[in-house]
Amino acid sequence: MTENTPPGASYAAAGVDIEAGETAVTLMKEWVAKAQRPESVGGLGGFAGLFDASALTRYRRPLLASATDGVGTKVAIAQRMDVHDTIGQDLVAMVVDDLVVCGAEPLFMTDYICAGKVYPERVAAIVKGIAEGCVLAGCALVGGETAEHPGLLEPDEYDVAGAATGVVEADRVLGADRVRPGDAVLAMAASGLHSNGYSLVRHVFFDRAGWALDRDVADFGRTLGEELLHPTRIYSLDCLALAEAVEVHAFAHVTGGGLAGNLARVVPDGLHARVRRESWTPPPVFDAVGSVGRVEREELERTLNMGVGMVAVVPQDSVAPALALLAERNLPAWVAGEIAEAGPGLPGGGAGLTGDYAA
């Protein structure tokens, strides 16, 4: 080799730091250890997460439910604010609350984090949020993967995704086939924007209005960044408690597509869900997106949750005990509408919003 001969290629020279990845695993172990269930087997570091399936023997006919999701462009807010320990709760919420819609109890979850460059403390903060979310959801974090993608992502960029598995007794699966005319539609309050519609939100506040993340917004009672990064509420344990205590026919997780779009997914042909806007006042952030961006109400409602993160469809005699139970669990909830027979202006298998929001 001559003086001018370049050194041999290496993984590190290509931009991948194996030692940083190993350090990240060491730092995250503390948080993963907090997100376990009695059925968890083994520890972090294996090629696969293990879960003792003998726990399922108490079921007569257990059905496994699976869901996967990410948090979309909300990660861009975390990156700009350099706050990384809450985005994991958003990830868990988006996954487990899809599971619980059919009545399934979330059992375990795995995560995937890809980054332009692995900063161990940052990865550990992300996993901390995931682990704390799993604790709130009652499921175990049994494993995951962290990948470094130099050249595809900038050093400060990352994305997160996750998958979870749950279980439900076959004869207790919830859904459209249980919904009946006269059922009540109960709305459960969202904690904010949750994790949908951030491409619109970012376009409105940053591109159109030029607002800074540290801008104090009086209506929010905090900065714009704090409002946008506020974590998604996790409903799984509340929904499971509700289904155990009273008769529930269906749940609907309000994500992309808005309240009407997601509620329609659990309304059978021949019936229609009518939701009254006057039954609640959306939090100020929704009005801000609409007024600052001059976004039409219809566009807002099919993009954002408007203050409702989960819906339960229950028979009328379940309404009072359901609301009482949710109040005991400190989850604001209210009767937002009802299930009606389809007819003129009420398309079967659909849902619609009527009236104006309460002031």
Automatic annotation (TrEMBL):
Gene name of the encoded protein: purM
InterPro entries reported in the protein's UniProt record: PurM-like_C_dom, PurM-like_C_sf, PurM-like_N, PurM-like_N_sf, PurM_cligase
Pfam families in alphabetical order: AIRS, AIRS_C
Pathway assignment: Purine metabolism; IMP biosynthesis via de novo pathway; 5-amino-1-(5-phospho-D-ribosyl)imidazole from N(2)-formyl-N(1)-(5-phospho-D-ribosyl)glycinamide: step 2/2
Source organism of this protein record: Streptomyces litchfieldiae
SUPFAM superfamilies the record matches: PurM C-terminal domain-like (SSF56042), PurM N-terminal domain-like (SSF55326)
Stated name of the protein: Phosphoribosylformylglycinamidine cyclo-ligase
Domain (PurM-like N-terminal) ranges: 63-168
Compartments where found: Cytoplasm
UniProt keyword Ligase, yes or no: yes
CDD domains: PurM
GO MF assignments: phosphoribosylformylglycinamidine cyclo-ligase activity
